[in-house]
Backbone:
C-alpha cells in the first residue's frame, strides 16, 4: 500500500467503503426478498392445501377408493411442485407433478393427527377428515417456479448493475476528488524531491489548495523562502570569507615577500657590514703601515740630523729637530693607539704570554720614561722590592700600560714626584704596579669617564695635554685581557694613584670557554644514539674543548675550521644541531647562518650561535635557535643543546620570548605548576618547534628580533591546526587600540609585563587549557 | 769593532740604521733580502744580525731558522725587527730562534741597549 500513490490509496479506500456499503444493502435486500417470498409461498401453500382439502373431502366421502381422482387442477398454481393423495391405509390414490419436474413423492408419515407443515422443505401433509374420520391424506409440495427463478436472476442482475454503477461512480468521484486533494500534496512532494535533489531553493509549490493542505504548502513555501534566504546569506558569507581568505593569503604572501625581502636586505646588510668591517680593518692595517713608513723616515732622519746638529754644536737646529721629533713621535703614538683600540674593538687583540724578569722590564720602562718625566721638572722614583722576581704575562702590553700611566702622570704633574711602586700581593698570586703622582688630580665626575675610549677627563685636556685619550682605555683593556684590572684613586688637587693589578702568572686562557671541568654537564637527551653536532669555529682550541665537552655529554661531534668547510660538511652529514662561531676569517658566521637557512635540508637544523658581546639581534633575525655569549659556560652550552634536541613532550606550553630573564622566570613558573614547556627566542624558533609538535598553548612576547609576535600570529592564523592553539600574550609594549583589536580575536589573554602577577599568568593558562591535557614534568 | 749584518729591504730604513750605527762605530754589512742575508751571514760571519721579518724572497723567520740551523752561524745573535702592528710576528720570531726583538720604527737608544746586551752575551770571537 505504501508504494501506491496517495491518489490511488484514496480511490481504493472510497471504493472499498462503497463496495462494503452496497454489498450490505444488497444482501439485506436479498434476504428480505427471500423471506417475503418464502412467506408468500407458505401462505399460498396453506391456501392451496385448504382448497384442496375442501375439494377432496366430498369426493372422498363419495368414494373413498376413487382412483380416478384428478389432481391436475393444481397445475394452475405454478408454485406447486408435487402433490399426492393417500388413503388412510397409505395407498396412493392420486398424484401430481409439475410438468418438467422430477419430484419424489415420499410415503406418508406414520402418525399424524393434524396437518404437518414443513416450512423448511415447503412440504405439507394434511389429513382429509369427514365426520371425525380420516378418509385421506394429502401431500403438497411447493417450490419456486420458473418465474420466481427469473425474478431472482433479475434481482441479482439489478444488484450487479447497481454495484457496478456505484463502483464506477465511486472511482470517478474518488479520482476527481482525490485529484483535488492529492494534486497539491503530490506537487508538494514533487517540489520537495526536486529541492532535495537540486538544492534549488527558489522552487515553490504552485497550488491554490485551501485548508490544512493550503496551510501546509504555504508553510513549506515559507520554509523554502527562509532556506533560500539563509542559503544566499551563507553563500554571501562564504564568498566574503573566501574573499577575506584570499586577502589574507595575499597579505600573507605580501608578508612572506616582505620577510624574504627583509631577510635578503638583512643578509645584504650583514654582508655589507662584514665587507665594511673587513675593509675597515684592512684599511686601518694598511693606513697604519702607510703612515708609519714615512713617519719612520721622518723620525729616523730627524734623529740623524739632530745628532749631526748636536755634534756640530748647532743647538738651534737641534732644538727645532727635537720639536719635529716630538711631533712625529706623538703622531706615531696616536696612530698606534687608534690601531690598538680598533683591534680591541674588533676582538682581534691577542696576548703573547712569556715569563720575564720584572726588574729588567721595569728598568727598561724607567729608562724610556725618564726623559718624559724629567721634562716638567718631575722626579721619578722606583719603589720595587729586590726579590720581585719574574712574572708570566704579555711583557709588551705591560710595558705599554706602564708607559701610558707614567706618561699621563707626567703630563698632569709639574715639579712633583712620580712614583712607580711594585709589590707582590700577600697571596703571592698577584702583582701590583702603582703609579703615584702629586699632580692636579681629578674630580669624581672626571673619574667616571676616565677609562672610556675617546673621552679624556676633560675635552679641553686634549688640547692642553695632548694624547688621544685612548691610552687609559687601551691599558684597561690590556689589564682585563690579562685577568687583571686598573683602578684609580684621586681627588682634585691631591694627585692620583693608578694601580695595575695582574696575576703573577697570566693563564694561557681558553678565553671562550669556562667551567669546562665542571661535572654538571647536561647529558644528551638520547641514550641509544648519539646526536650529531657540527661545531664551526676557526679557533682550534675552541673546537677541541667543545668536542671534549660534547663527547662527554653523549654527542657525536664533527668540526669545521671555516665557514665554507662547515657548510660543506653540514650538507654532507645533515647534523642534528650546529654550533656556529660568528667571527671567522673568510666566510663569517652570519653568512654561514644565512646560507644554512637557505638550504631546505638544513633550514630546520637548530643553530646555536657563539657570539661576542654584540650581534644578538642579528643572530635572532637570521633564525638562530639560541645565542650564547663568549666566554661560553659549558653547563649553559650543554643545557642549551639538550633543550634544543630533547624530544617534545606529548603536551607542552610553548614560550616565545626573547628576553632571557623573562624566559627563565616564566619557565620556572610553569615548571612549578608541573607543566612541560619549551622556549623559543623568537617566531622563527617557535615555528621550528611547532613543526615538530603542536603545543597545548603559546605564551607569546610581541617585541622580538627576527619574527616578532604579530608576524608569528599571522603565520599561526594560516594553519588550521595551529589556529586552535590558545595564545596568551605577555608583553611590555604599549598596545595601541589597533594592536588590541588585532590581538583580541587571535589570543585568549593579554598580560602586561610588570603588571601581572604569577597568579594572573597561571590563571590565564588554566583558563585556556585543560590541565589534564598537560603532562606534568 | 763589532760587525753587524743588517737584513732590511726598505731602503730608507736601511740607510738610516746604517748611518746611525756606523756613526757609533759599528761595521755594517747589508743584505736586501732573506736569501742574501743567509749567504752573507755565512760569508761575513757578523757579530750580530739585525733581521727584518717581512722580507722578499726568504722572509726573516725562515732566514733566521737557516742561520740558526747552520753550525757555522748558529752562535750569531739575531735581533728581529718587527712592525708594531704585527705582534704575532714577535712570538714567531722568538720561535724561529731570534735572541731578541725590537719594534719598528726603531728607537735607536733602546736598540743600542739590546745590541750591547747581546754582544756582551755573545762576545765577538777574534777573527781567524
Residues:
Amino acid at each position: 500500500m505504501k508504494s501506491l500513490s496517495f491518489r490511488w490509496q484514496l480511490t481504493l479506500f472510497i471504493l472499498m467503503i462503497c463496495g462494503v456499503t452496497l454489498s450490505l444493502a444488497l444482501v439485506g435486500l436479498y434476504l428480505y426478498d427471500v423471506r417475503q417470498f418464502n412467506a408468500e409461498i407458505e401462505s399460498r401453500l396453506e391456501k392451496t392445501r385448504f382448497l384442496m382439502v375442501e375439494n377432496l373431502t366430498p369426493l372422498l366421502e363419495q368414494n373413498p377408493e376413487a382412483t380416478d381422482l384428478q389432481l391436475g387442477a393444481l397445475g394452475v398454481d405454478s408454485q406447486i411442485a408435487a402433490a399426492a393423495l393417500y388413503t388412510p391405509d397409505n395407498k396412493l390414490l392420486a398424484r401430481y407433478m409439475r410438468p418438467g419436474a422430477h419430484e419424489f413423492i415420499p410415503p406418508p408419515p406414520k402418525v399424524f393427527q393434524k396437518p404437518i407443515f414443513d416450512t423448511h422443505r415447503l412440504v405439507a401433509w394434511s389429513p382429509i377428515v369427514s365426520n371425525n374420520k380420516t378418509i385421506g391424506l394429502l401431500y403438497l409440495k411447493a417450490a419456486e417456479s420458473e418465474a420466481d427463478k427469473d425474478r431472482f436472476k433479475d434481482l441479482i442482475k439489478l444488484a450487479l448493475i447497481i454495484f457496478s454503477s456505484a463502483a464506477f461512480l465511486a472511482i470517478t468521484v474518488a479520482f476527481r476528488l482525490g485529484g483535488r486533494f492529492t494534486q497539491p500534496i503530490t506537487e508538494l512532494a514533487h517540489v520537495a524531491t526536486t529541492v532535495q535533489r537540486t538544492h534549488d531553493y527558489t522552487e515553490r509549490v504552485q497550488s491554490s489548495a485551501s485548508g490544512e493542505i493550503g496551510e501546509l504548502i504555504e508553510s513549506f513555501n515559507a520554509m523554502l523562502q527562509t532556506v533560500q534566504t539563509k542559503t544566499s546569506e551563507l553563500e554571501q558569507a562564504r564568498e566574503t570569507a573566501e574573499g577575506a581568505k584570499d586577502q589574507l593569503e595575499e597579505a600573507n604572501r605580501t608578508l612572506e615577500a616582505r620577510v624574504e625581502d627583509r631577510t635578503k636586505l638583512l643578509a645584504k646588510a650583514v654582508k655589507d657590514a662584514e665587507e665594511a668591517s673587513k675593509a675597515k680593518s684592512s684599511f686601518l692595517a694598511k693606513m697604519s703601515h702607510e703612515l708609519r713608513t714615512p713617519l719612520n723616515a721622518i723620525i729616523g732622519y730627524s734623529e740623524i740630523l739632530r745628532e749631526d746638529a748636536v755634534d756640530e754644536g748647532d743647538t738651534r737646529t737641534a732644538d727645532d729637530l727635537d720639536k719635529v721629533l716630538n711631533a712625529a713621535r706623538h703622531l706615531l703614538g696616536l696612530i698606534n693607539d687608534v690601531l690598538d683600540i680598533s683591534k680591541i674593538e674588533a676582538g682581534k687583540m691577542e696576548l703573547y704570554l712569556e715569563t720575564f724578569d720584572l726588574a729588567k722590564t721595569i728598568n727598561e720602562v724607567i729608562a724610556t720614561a725618564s726623559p718624559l718625566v724629567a721634562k716638567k721638572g718631575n722626579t721619578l722614583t722606583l719603589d720595587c722590592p729586590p726579590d720581585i722576581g719574574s712574572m708570566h704575562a704579555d711583557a709588551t702590553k705591560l710595558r705599554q700600560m706602564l708607559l701610558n700611566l707614567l706618561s699621563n702622570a707626567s703630563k698632569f704633574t709639574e715639579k712633583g714626584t712620580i712614583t712607580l711602586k711594585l709589590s707582590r700581593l700577600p697571596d703571592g698570586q698577584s702583582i701590583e704596579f702603582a703609579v703615584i703622582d702629586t699632580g692636579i688630580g681629578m674630580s669624581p665626575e672626571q673619574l667616571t669617564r676616565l677609562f672610556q675610549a675617546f673621552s679624556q677627563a676633560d675635552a679641553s685636556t686634549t688640547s692642553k695635554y695632548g694624547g688621544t685619550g685612548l691610552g687609559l682605555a687601551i691599558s684597561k683593556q690590556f689589564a682585563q685581557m690579562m685577568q687583571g684590572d686598573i683602578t684609580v684613586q684621586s681627588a682634585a688637587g691631591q694627585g692620583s694613584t693608578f694601580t695595575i693589578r695582574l696575576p703573577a702568572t697570566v693563564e694561557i686562557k681558553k678565553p671562550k670557554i669556562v667551567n669546562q671541568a665542571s661535572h654538571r654537564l647536561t647529558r644528551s637527551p638520547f641514550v641509544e644514539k648519539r646526536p650529531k653536532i657540527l661545531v664551526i669555529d676557526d679557533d682550534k682550541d675552541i673546537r677541541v674543548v667543545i668536542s671534549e665537552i660534547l663527547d662527554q655529554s653523549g654527542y657525536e661531534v664533527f668540526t669545521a675550521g671555516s665557514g665554507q668547510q662547515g657548510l660543506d660538511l653540514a650538507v654532507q652529514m645533515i647534523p642534528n644541531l650546529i654550533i656556529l662561531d660568528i667571527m671567522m676569517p673568510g666566510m663569517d658566521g652570519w653568512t654561514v647562518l644565512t646560507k644554512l637557512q637557505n638550504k631546505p635540508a638544513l633550514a630546520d637544523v637548530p643553530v646555536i650561535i657563539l657570539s661576542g658581546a654584540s650581534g644578538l639581534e642579528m643572530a635572532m633575525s637570521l633564525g638562530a635557535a639560541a645565542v650564547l655569549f663568549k666566554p661560553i659556560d659549558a653547563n649553559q652550552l650543554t643545557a642549551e643543546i639538550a633543550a634544543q634536541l630533547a624530544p617534545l613532550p606529548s603536551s607542552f606550553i610553548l614560550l616565545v620570548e626573547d628576553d632571557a630573564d623573562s624566559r627563565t622566570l616564566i619557565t620556572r613558573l610553569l615548571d612549578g605548576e608541573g607543566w612541560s614547556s619549551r622556549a623559543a627566542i623568537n617566531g622563527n624558533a617557535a615555528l621550528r618547534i611547532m613543526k615538530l609538535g603542536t603545543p597545548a598553548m603559546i605564551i607569546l612576547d610581541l617585541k622580538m628580533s627576527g619574527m616578532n609576535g604579530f608576524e608569528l600570529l599571522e603565520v599561526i592564523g594560516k594553519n588550521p591546526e595551529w589556529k586552535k592553539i590558545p595564545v596568551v600574550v605577555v608583553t611590555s609594549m604599549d598596545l595601541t587600540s589597533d594592536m588590541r583589536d588585532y590581538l583580541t580575536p587571535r589570543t585568549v589573554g593579554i598580560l602586561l609585563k610588570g603588571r601581572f602577577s604569577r597568579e594572573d599568568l597561571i590563571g590565564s593558562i588554566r583558563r585556556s587549557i585543560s590541565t589534564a591535557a598537560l603532562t606534568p614534568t | 769593532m763589532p760587525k753587524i749584518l743588517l737584513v732590511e729591504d726598505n731602503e730608507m730604513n736601511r740607510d738610516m740604521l746604517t748611518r746611525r750605527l756606523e756613526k757609533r762605530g759599528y761595521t755594517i754589512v747589508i743584505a736586501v733580502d732573506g736569501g742574501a742575508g743567509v749567504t752573507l751571514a755565512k760569508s761575513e760571519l757578523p757579530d750580530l744580525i739585525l733581521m727584518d721579518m717581512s722580507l722578499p724572497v726568504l722572509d726573516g723567520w725562515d732566514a733566521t731558522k737557516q742561520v740558526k740551523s747552520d753550525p757555522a752561524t748558529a752562535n750569531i745573535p739575531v735581533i728581529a725587527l718587527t712592525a708594531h702592528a704585527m705582534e704575532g710576528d714577535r712570538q714567531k720570531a722568538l720561535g724561529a730562534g731570534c735572541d731578541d726583538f725590537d719594534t719598528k720604527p726603531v728607537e735607536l737608544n733602546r736598540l743600542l741597549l739590546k745590541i750591547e746586551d747581546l754582544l756582551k752575551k755573545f762576545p765577538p770571537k777574534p777573527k781567524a
About this structure: The longest helix of chain B spans residues 108-121. Chain B touches chain A through 23 residues (CB under 8 Å).
